[in-house]
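Field notebook, page 134. I keep forgetting to write these up properly, so this time I am using the form the group agreed on. The chain and the ligand, zinc ion, are recorded exactly as supplied. Prediction of the bound pose follows.
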Amino acid sequence: MRQTEDIIQKLLRIRKARELSEQPQMSEEEVEALREFIIENRRQIPPFAMSHFDRLEASGKMGIAEVVDKKCSACGARISDDEIAYLQKNKNIGVCDNCFAFIYMDGQKFAGDDEFFADLLRRARTAEKPNQAK
Ligand SMILES: [Zn+2]
């Protein structure tokens, strides 16, 4: 996977993991696994990208948004054809001129995260009693 795609996917997963960890039905083990996942993934994202994302999300905005129908899905601003060509060309990551969210194309590529997190949480639940495994 290209580095830019990798960053897009990690940012999306960090956001998803944070949302999941805030759900009341999560067990301690699950929350712990999600926190570890977030820390590990944050380490792999360039610091400037991470802090840009954090700043936006902390102020209640979206740090990353898909471009849908040539518009930023965070704020609805129109994305220029030049920018769209750039995003499509090498699966690049851009920034919305209006809301400053990171923007990307082709959300299907990053779907399948439900299954990814179901797996992660299943592993967190089954790994919780090492002493009884013998
Ligand atoms: Zn926007």
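OBSERVATIONS:
- The pocket of zinc ion is lined by residues 72, 74-75, 77, 96, 98-99, 101 (CB under 6 Å).
- Residues 3-129 form one domain.
FOLLOW-UP: compare against the apo run.
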